[in-house]
Amino acid sequence: MTVSAPRPHVDLQNAVVRFAGDSGDGMQLTGTEFTREAALYGNDLATFPDYPAEIRAPAGTTAGVSGYQIQFAAHEVYSAGDQPDTLVAMNPAALKVHLPDLKRGGLLILNEASFKQSDLDRAGWKTNPLTDGTLENYQVIKVDFEHLVGKAVEGAGVSAKDASRCKNFYALGLVFWIYSRDIEREEQAIRERFKKSPPLAEANVRAFKAGYNYGETIEALDAPYSIQPARLKPGKYRNVTGNSALALGLIAAAQKAGLRLFYGSYPITPASDILHELSKYRRFQLTTFQAEDEIAAISAAIGASFAGALGITGSSGPGIALKTEAMGLALMTELPLVIINVQRGGPSTGLPTKTEQSDLFQAVYGRNGECPIPVLAARSPADCFETAYEACRIAIDCRTPVIVLSDGSLANGSEPWLLPDVNSLPKIEPDFATDPAGFMPYKRDEKLARPWAIPGTPGLEHRIGGLEKDALTGNISYDAHNHEKMVRTRAEKVRRIADRLEPTEPFFDPEGEVLVIGWGGTYGSITQAVIEARQGGLKVGHVHLRHVFPLPNDLTDVAARYRTVLVPELNMGQLRLHMRGQLGLESVGLNKIQGKPFHVAEIRSAIESLARRKHLPAEQEIA
Amino acid sequence: MSAPLVKLTKKDFVSDQEVRWCPGCADFAILAGVQKLMPELGIAREKTVFISGIGCASRFPYYMNTYGFHGIHGRAPAIATGLKMANPDLTVWVVTGDGDGLSIGGNHLIHALRRNVDLKILLFDNRIYGLTKGQASPTSELGKKTKSSPFGTVDRPFNPLTLALGAGATFVARTTANDMPHMSSVLKRAAAHKGAAFVEIWQNCVVFNDGAFDEWSEKDVRDERLLKLEHGKPLMYGKSKDKGLRIGGGFTLEMGAADGAVVHDESRDNLSLALALAALEPPWPQVMGVLRAVDLPTVDQLAREQEREAEKATRGPATLEALLQSGDTWDVTAGAGDA
What we know:
The structure holds two protein chains of two kinds.
Chain A: E1 10-11, E2 14-22, H1 27-41, E3 44-50, E4 65-73, E5 86-89, H2 92-98, E6 107-111, H3 117-123, E7 139-143, H4 145-152, H5 160-164, H6 167-178, H7 183-193, H8 198-218, E8 225-226, E9 235-241, H9 242-257, E10 261-265, H10 272-279, E11 286-290, H11 294-306, E12 310-315, H12 317-333, E13 337-343, H13 360-365, E14 375-377, H14 383-398, E15 401-407, H15 408-412, E16 414-418, E17 463-465, H16 480-499, E18 507-508, E19 512-519, H17 523-535, E20 540-545, E21 547-549, H18 555-559, E22 562-569, H19 574-583, E23 588-591, H20 600-611
Helix pairs in contact in A: 1-6, 2-3, 6-8, 7-8, 9-10, 9-14, 11-12, 17-20
Chain B: H1 27-41, E1 48-52, E2 67-70, H2 76-86, E3 91-97, H3 98-104, H4 106-115, E4 119-125, H5 160-166, E5 171-176, H6 180-192, E6 197-202, H7 214-217, H8 222-225, E7 226-228, E8 236-237, E9 243-247, E10 253-257, H9 272-278, E11 286-293, H10 299-313, H11 320-324, E12 329-332
Parallel strand pairs in B: 1-2, 1-3, 3-4, 4-6, 5-6, 7-11
Antiparallel strand pairs in B: 5-11, 8-9, 9-10
């Protein structure tokens, strides 16, 4: 093999690429493949898959467009990027939906074969964008995918239909050339993926390589781009989605505690992948239970916790609503339980595949009676691991249900994850009761936790349930003062969790003009926005809350070091109202409810606009 | 941790809690029957768990000196499923009623039965809502006048036995709380069954539905109106066992003389005869006893078998470290990226 002379490269610091096509075009796979290679190459990255709720919406319509965006860089990356530099649009519908986001002057790769009149009609183009001047501000690469892919896979032994389905790998090959990626590693990955069907593997490899060579042949660019590896913290990495990291965090906690993990769940978007992931790991003393409904899923998890397992249930907002009564039962019986809510657009069925942060009130306040349950929120895909782990630790330590909030963008988004040292994970001690001498089912320790006395332990037979219990014996009690004592004790048990939190240390400026307080999946966009605002000379701090309830004790004091507080949320201001109610902390909201993450620019401009004002604006939301 | 080899008595299974059912409630008889049965099973108290939902029947666990869990309305089978799957060594009883088990918790009941979770499910059927003070239940007969149906109900009732059979229950039986010997024998059979055992217990509510079962189960009529099923014996009833049921033309049962009655076989795979017997309505006799008892693997067994298979298939130890490092990983060394 001859080595060709090194091509000239244009070195970039970062790039944003979006793959878009019909739901059946394999865009999620294409994006995932590109992401894996970027990760293995050593770029830092963040991804944002965005797909419709319908499995196969009518072909060629804008309703069926599925997209996958990745930002990869030679430096640290916090979000999937606001605007793509490169857009791959496999049909006119994908072009229609995504063109408005493409950077002016950006690279646009189009499937020329899909711009027949009927295709244009289905996508709602009145005139042909290829010829009507719509694309004049972009660098357009028109590719006749159907013809070229057909030729490339000739002789691979696949049907014409299967041949046509290789066009996503052709597109991937072309983007590999544009960003100077390693094709050999990808070739192996394709062969591994299709190892059950060697002809399919061969066809996809040929399409992939042909796409790569096409870039070279037509000199799609004067010089391809190159993005060097990022200077990440040393260690072993893997790329991980939020749902995978969450599942691994649960397994890690159960393993460290020496407990069986019991996961009860009912299929729901976007939480189902946690069930799928956990179902693979039977060898880790792990029971997954696909229940008949959401209520059974949590009830079975409570039963498992009563038996001495780590009971966990997971769902999304509508399913969490159904679990509400059982969450009260777990609180009343003071058993460890973790409830995961991978939030999506609501209310009701809402926007199943889109992201939102609108279940904070549901998590903190959404039950009958005085029912305080600790609420933790993950801030990035990899952070789902630690958040899940900490939730399990609190649940076991305090004998309480704990809610973990994730969201659709974290669940499916991915980033490189610096693998934790297993030995350095905090200890979790189930500390089962075994001694019948002086045993009382509701006698509490210094954390106000009651004993975990599990069936099978001689001499500790006792009865628990949803009726109010005597503060010591656990017998049914309708006594007025006992009830008040129990309500206040359960509240105090949860409140004390805040006493054990690390002091709040804002990122960036420790004092200044604006403190941005966020929670959940907005972390990346806020971080990047604060970096950019500070480059403009502003003094800005950022606190990202993992503990949504109880809130950190020192939050008000930290906020007082800044002139104003900005709270960006993908809802109508739930954290803002929660902080006002819990702490009397006033803030201004930046609120977006479009089923989409924040753009960095939106937050940056809110910070800048707020920093210019002398006083906290009277309005609750900043435009 | 095995229990000391002390012979337990009924008293050992009586908790220190005051029993708060209405005087004359048939629940007392069922409680006594179950407490009497416990020492005969030879299972340690600490390995026995009673789980219930909401309703009069669901107070049951408080009165048993075993582990107990008084759950929420209808959810006892789901709680019990989680408990049993987490620890298959436990003997788990579910106590429910016609409202709790067939209405608000109907979904959990049928799924526990179809999964064949190793649970003993006692459904106390009084054909009324007791704890909420007298509304129609899913087993109330059509046209029944109650507080919530002053003009009579307009919805047809469930037959708990056909429902359980239809859900694929591996053990289905009926008994009545006013016949202690029969109830004891059925409970003992349920306890011995490996799998989901469903027992409907006719239970008279003296306050809101007194006499609901009198026309069949009172001492003076029961011989004529109840058919006690016995495995391997012909389907006969009547004071002098002079009447029998046989299979007629067109896939039906026929009443006739005892001679030629069909022999009861509770282990039959085919459900049709069990369903026909369960569905009998007056003037036909009502069946009592074990309708169906078949051996099938339980969900808790199957789940554990999968775990053992997965362990065997794993090369090397299943360590957490190996799990986290599975998939494509890469190393970043100090100074990488500077090259």
